[in-house]
TrEMBL record:
The organism's taxonomic lineage, starting at the top: Bacteria, Bacillati, Bacillota, Bacilli, Bacillales
Entry's transmembrane regions: 6-28, 40-65, 77-96, 108-129, 141-159
Keyword Metal-binding: no
Source species of the chain: Lihuaxuella thermophila
Domain of life: Bacteria
UniProt-recorded name of the protein: Energy-coupling factor transport system substrate-specific component
Amino acid sequence: MDKRNIWSFRFTTASLVLIPVAIGINYLGKLFANILKLPLWLDSIGTILASLLAGPIVGAVSGAVNNIIFGLTADPISFVYAISSVAIGLVAGILAAKGWFDSFGKMLMAGLVIGVSVAIVSTPLNIIFWGGQTGNLWGDALFALLMAQGMPMWLASFLNEITVDLPDKLVTVFVSTIIFRRLPHQLLHMYRHDDKIETL
């Protein structure tokens, strides 16, 4: 995919329909993880799916709007992390355009890259707004342990974040890719940028 196609965003009917669908998937995943107290976020499956279908811009918009809606209706903390969701959509869309979702090994690497990228973006937010914590029970337990050991806050916060983000993004990448590959060919054609994306 060339740069013009990667970054293009037209308000087509397909794109406008995809954004609320992606938001709904994100919202349900987040609620599911919260209810079961999982050591995962599960709030970006729709974002990555949107990036696979329509590119990084649509994915980023889906992720950001999802955080705003979730912040208004369930958890105000989500507002702060809209920028993290934008990063997920952008990175996933770029990697998809470069073929990082077309094999198991590449998907594994994509999940790792997305996880590390989001941890880098989110760690300063955690420190500024929440004293280094993430709000995830499992990650915050690790953070408390590391702080008790005398580790610098920025490092304890980063390890807190990445401990949750890496497994979460690996699961998210695989789930979103499975959904993508099971979509009808006619639907994929609506979002087709080039042959490479169509055959992921």
